[in-house]
Task: structure prediction
Amino acid sequence: MQNIDWGSLGFKYMDTRCHVRYVWRDGKWDQGEMVEEPFFKMHIAAACLHYGQAAFEGLKAFRCKDGSLRVFRPRENARRMALTARRLCMAEVSEDLFLDAIKRVIRANEEYVPPYGTGGSLYVRPLLIGSGEQIGVAPAREYTFIVLVVPVGAYYKGGLQPVKALIYDDFDRAAPLGVGNVKAAGNYASSLYAHEKAKKEGYPVELYLDAREHKYVEEFATSNFIGITRDNRYVTPASRSILPSVTNETLKTLAADMGLKVEVRQVPFEELAELAEVAACGTAVVVTPVNEIRRGETVIRIGESGSGCGPVLQKLYETVQGIQYGEIPDRYGWCYEV
Ligand code: COI
Result:
């Protein structure tokens, strides 16, 4: 194993000991194997390459205060991957197989789980692809399910750093009745163009409005939108085309525990200016506070100081992390020991 400087890990790929790989043929999954080489020999006509039959998930394993290794809410990811598989006409991975796969790969790569106290975690990336050859447009007849892992660092070393977000009126993330509500790899490919453009303009994240009318807030390119109102309500958009985020679900529960009213409803663009706190939320970062949102010539500043993270988001962030590292009791049984 290479020497890892745990303190300087970012969110970038690194080879680990192995990944686990299963193949589905003739209606069933094989026993799976641990593969050391980070390469994959594939048919040149594989359906994932030509027709985008590819789905993925993201979750994290933590080395906890008591030394145990725990994964956060893996069943939710298993269910979501099954929904994506159904929507893309792919072979489904059962919850049992999913859990077994992540357990196998995490145990085999145990030395890559960052030590407790470094703020790092082991990012777990399940990937499901149509690997069978397919030249007519139809579902593949062979699928491959891979789970790979990468150690990642604390996203925010010096505390939660707010970022600026940009709304484009000439790009949409997902069609109203399309595949925005599942974790199809193609959703990420189609967001890259606007994302690179926004970055060049100095905006690390883009916020999308509903594709039909551009009236309501939907989500950031790769994470859900959450807002905290001045009278302490937790607001997050209801939409048929946003990805059901496990982190958002978690935050909703914790916000309700903290006494906030949780509202899942349409969020008109005009309401942004009234919010006290705004964030993007997802597995990779938990929450990314947003202190400014621009749409054309309109610039909306969020919150009081503009420079830090609001108190409600800060508390939510600390609570999630506390549960993940085993410092706060896991009242809901979210952590899964491997
Ligand atoms: C997450 O926040 O976990 C995401 O979905 C981004 C990921 C694709 C890196």
